[in-house]
Structure formats: structure tokens, C-alpha cells
Amino acid sequence: MGKNILNEQLSALIKNEPDNLANMANTSAFLMQFIENINWAGFYRYAKENDELVLGPFQGKIACVHIKNGQGVCGTAFKKQKTQRINNVHKFPGHIACDAESMSEIVIPLGEFGVLDIDSPIENRFSTQNQLMIEELANTFIKTLTKH
Ligand code: SME
After folding, report:
1. To test the ligand 1 pocket, which listed residue (67, 78, 86, 88) has its Cβ within 8 A of the most ligand atoms?
2. Which residues line ligand 1 (CB under 6 A)?
3. Could you state, in order of their start, the residue ranges of all structural domains in the chain?
4. What count of other Cβ atoms lies within 10 Å of the Cβ of residue 45?
5. How many C-alpha atoms does 84 have within 13 Å on its Cβ side?
6. Which CATH code is given to the segment(s) 3-142?
7. What pTM did the predictor assign?
8. Which of 32, 62, 64 to mutate to test the pocket of ligand 1 (most atoms within 8 A of CB)?
9. Contact 121, 102 (CB under 8 A)
């Protein structure tokens, strides 16, 4: 795979900023601005006390706030700690529909921190190549995580 310019830009945007909230906010705005044909991009954070994911900074339409660990595409990605790349969300058992326009979805686990979720109004939007690129972006975000 060639040089990931987007990854370099994201890294420059967040690497010197220690505030996780600010970095989540700017990362979701960055994804929405530079990835074509998406309608939602943002974070869900894992809350251990309730064993659930809770909505974090995002760009897009209003979304569901609480997602049980293991539920929907996000909960599955978190529980399995494995990227979920779904070509047609309507065929995914337990998919949680937040924006009716969403047709395909990619969710990257971020370890104990939570997940990064990106939705598209187009079926089959995310290729394996896109997945690798987005996983690199997620990894750049993980590297900036601080203890507070
Ligand atoms: N569709 C997700 C829920 C989050 S929204 O897409 C923003 C899911 O099934 O986990």
C-alpha cells in the first residue's frame, strides 16, 4: 500500500495535543471532511461499570447513546476486538439503525478505549483497501491516547 497521506495529516493534527476529548472531536471532523461518501463518523467509549459503549464526539445525525457490549455492529467490533466491515447493514443481525440513510458501516476497535464508527449511505462503500487505510488512522488516534 502507498503512503497514506491522510494518516500523515491526521497525525499532524492530533499528535501534539494531549487532550483525548479534543482529539476525538477533531478526528471525527477530519474523517467527515476527507473521506468521501460517508454520513456519520465518530467514537463510542467503553464504560466498564455498565459493560456498554457510550456515545462520544461525532459528526453526523443524532445517534443512540448506549450500546451494550456485543450488541449491533459497534458492540460486536468491541467484544471481538476485530474490525467489522459491513457491506449492507440491513443484513447484519442486531444492527442498530441510527440514521436511516446508513447502508454500509465500518467499525474499528480501539482496545479498552472503545470504537471508531464510520457509516455510509452507499452499499459496499468500504473496500479492504479502505479498511487498511482507516485502521491506520485509528492506530494513529490510539497512539495519541493519554492517561487522563
Ligand atoms: N449502527 C451502529 C450504531 C451506531 S450508529 O451507526 C452511529 C451499530 O449497529 O452498532
Report:
1. 67
2. 40, 63, 67, 72-74, 95-96, 98, 102, 105, 117, 119
3. 3-142
4. 17
5. 27
6. 3.30.450.40
7. 0.95
8. 64
9. yes
